[in-house]
Every structure is written in C-alpha cells, then in structure tokens.
Write a structure and sequence with these properties.
Blueprint (H helix, E strand, L loop, with lengths): L2 H18 L5 E2 L3 E3 L2 E3 L3 E9 L1 E9 L1 H12 L8 H24 L4 E3 L3 E4 L4 E3 L5 E8 L2 E11 L1
Antiparallel strand pairs: 1-9, 2-9, 3-8, 4-5, 4-6, 4-7, 5-10, 9-10
Helix pairs in contact: 1-3, 2-3
Length: 153
C-alpha cells in the first residue's frame, strides 16, 4: 500500500479531532496489521471503491467513544443511543470526506460507502486480501486507531 493513501486519512483525523474534540493530540507510530485484527469494541467502517478498493476503520473502546460523542455534543452521553451513533458516524464522515477530497486533489479517484458502526466485545475484522496500516492517536478522551487497508485495482 502506498503511503500517499494513509497520510490524508491520518491528517484528516487529527484535524477533525482537534477542531471537534481536543487540541491535545499525539500520533503514535504506524504499524502493519495482518488480515485478522481484533478490535477495541467500537468500530466504524467506511468502504472505498474505484481506482482503489478497501476500507478505513476507526477503532476505539466504548468509554472513549462515549467521551468523544459527549465532547462533540457539549453534553454528557452515557449510553449508545441514536445521538451517540449519529455523532460517531458523522465523525467518520468528516474524517473520510476531508481525506478523500485531498486524495482527489492529488489525482486519485474513488468513492466511499456510508459509515457502518459496530459495537461489541471480541469484534474481529477479517480481510485476507488487504493488509492494513494502523496509526494510533491519543487524545484526553482515550485512544483511537485509524486503520487503513487499501489496494490499487
């Protein structure tokens, strides 16, 4: 996978989180993940199709997800209800939209699927065709991982 694909998603995540959640953000080291990956408990998946195919996963634990949704709504949210889910999927829309706009400016052409949010213990994502690059992001609310798995068609 070309690094040109991952940087716009990570940069967009940092910019969006900085403007909506907290300016106190640190980016961890990129790592490579195999095809079967255990998730932290709240997973937002956005599919990619066109010149490239694959998916972007925003992964976090339940507590972090609730704290992020609370910060974005300026109120304390304590359960996964429609507002929490809508807020987190909108966060994914903002991140992926910003990244794809940047990639389109660089000449790459592909489309996005709407975000799908999954919650639960022991969630695993299996895709034996795509290895993923993962970038951890730390904010005061917790840890988020941006998981980018893209292959060129």
């Amino acid at each position: 996978m070309r690094v040109e694909y991952i940087n716009p998603f990570v940069d967009a995540a940092i910019q969006i989180l900085s403007s909506t959640v907290s300016k106190d953000i640190s980016r961890g080291q990129i790592s490579l993940r195999s095809s079967i990956t255990p998730m932290m408990g709240v997973v937002i998946i956005v599919g990619l199709a066109g010149q490239v195919s694959g998916r972007i996963i925003i992964d976090m634990d339940r507590e972090t997800a609730l704290k992020i949704a609370s910060a974005m709504n300026n109120e304390t949210l304590v359960e996964f209800d429609e507002l929490t889910t809508a807020t987190l999927t909108e966060l994914a829309n903002m991140i992926t939209g910003k990244a794809v706009t940047r990639l389109h400016e660089l000449g790459f052409q592909f489309d996005l699927t709407p975000p799908a949010l999954f919650t639960g213990e022991k969630i695993q994502i299996s895709d034996n065709k795509i290895e993923a690059l993962v970038v951890p992001i730390e904010i005061p609310q917790g840890k988020i991982e941006i998981n980018v798995g893209i292959k060129e068609e």
